[in-house]
Every structure is written in C-alpha cells, then in structure tokens.
Amino acid sequence: MDGEAGGYPEGGRRGALGDYPLLLHYHPLTVYRHKVLKRPDTVLAHLLLDNESDEVMRNSFEYYEKYTTHDSSMTDCVHSMLASRIGDLQKAYDFFRKSIQLDLDDLCHNTVDGLHMANAGGVYMSVVYGFGGVRIKEDGLHLHPGKPKEWERFSFKLNYRGKEVEVMVGEFLEIRCKGSMEVIVNGKRHNVYEYLKIGY
C-alpha cells in the first residue's frame, strides 16, 4: 500500500521518482526515469479482482490517471470502467467517448493498417461492466447500473449460466430472460420471471 496514492504502487520504485508532465513525447530512456505509465495496470487489477474498498479504488484511479500517458489503445476503456465503478459517470463517459472514437476518427493515425480490436472489446466492456455495472460473483449476477446524462437509455445482452439476459438501463432498469433467474441490483436480490422492471 502506497501512502501517497492510497492504493497499490506500480513498477516497484515508481513512488520514489519525480512527477513529470505528460504533454509531450520523449525518448523512452527519458521517460523511464520519470513517473509515467503507458497503461494503468493497477487500475485494471481493481476491475479484475473486485476485492478492494471503494476508497482504495478511487484513490488508485485518481493517482494513476495523472501519470498515465494514454499511449495504449486499451487505456481509455480501462479508465472508463473504473470511473463508472467509483461513481464518476462524467469521467467514465469522457473516457468512453475517447475509446469509441479511437478508430472512427483515426485518433492514432493508423486505422488504415487495421482496427484496434482490443479497444473494440474494451468499448463493449465499458458499457457492460462499466455503465451496466455487471459483476459475476459466486453468489450471482450483480448489477450496479449508472447511465450517463448524455444517454436516454442503453441496453446490452450477455449470457449468464446458459441464459441469454438482456439488460436495458433508462429511467428504470429492465431485465429480460427466458424462464427465471435471480439478479442482485445494488446489493438487493430480485427474482426475474422473464421480465423485471425496477427503479435503481
């Protein structure tokens, strides 16, 4: 645990290095001597492990956001997902927009060579695991939805234990499935019999 970050340090000695502006590109030998990151691996670990407090995840997000160069096409979607998880929907949406526009606007000036498929998967994950708040745990399918103010509604489908589940998030949360299942919404367990519509 890093006292300054309130989270876990990346790269071993990074906490001992000085801050550095990320506005310009420098030779890697220069960059390696400063506190900069290409990808937010610690932030990603919070998404995968899901065993830290909201405070630790928020501290890690805020700390590593300022040191990440966003040179990787997978960075913005990771930041979008964790921003959603910590409840900062505006930042989540801003990172989502950057991620979704990456190939559409040729932001890396290399779309002619092919699409960034890992980023495309990250865009889907930003919707499902970020804004949809999907967590698959031992005790069931959890949803913690949060809708960006820029959207009227959004929906997605996923397969859970052999069932196709459709989730729609708008003024209400709507869930469709064949047969019945249980879902946990913001910590409260609900039974779904083909269709459920609730406030969230």
Structural summary, described in words:
There is one protein chain. The protein has 200 residues and is an alpha+beta fold. The chain has helices spanning 28-31, 41-49, 54-65, 75-85, 89-104, 117-131; strands at residues 135-137, 140-143, 154-160, 163-169, 173-185, 188-198. Strands 1, 2, 3, 4, 5 and 6 form a 6-stranded mixed β-sheet that branches. Strand 5 (173-185) and strand 6 (188-198) form a beta hairpin. Helix 4 runs parallel beside helix 6 (117-131). The two termini are 34 Å apart. The model has no long low-confidence stretch (mean pLDDT 87).
Annotate the secondary structure layout.
Blueprint: H1 28-31, H2 41-49, H3 54-65, H4 75-85, H5 89-104, H6 117-131, E1 135-137, E2 140-143, E3 154-160, E4 163-169, E5 173-185, E6 188-198
Parallel strand pairs: 2-5
Antiparallel strand pairs: 1-2, 3-4, 4-5, 5-6
InterPro entries: 6-hairpin_glycosidase_sf (IPR008928), 6hp_glycosidase-like_sf (IPR012341), Glyco_hydro_65_C (IPR005194), Glyco_hydro_65_M (IPR005195)
Domain Glycoside hydrolase family 65 C-terminal: 135-191
Protein name: Glycoside hydrolase family 65 protein
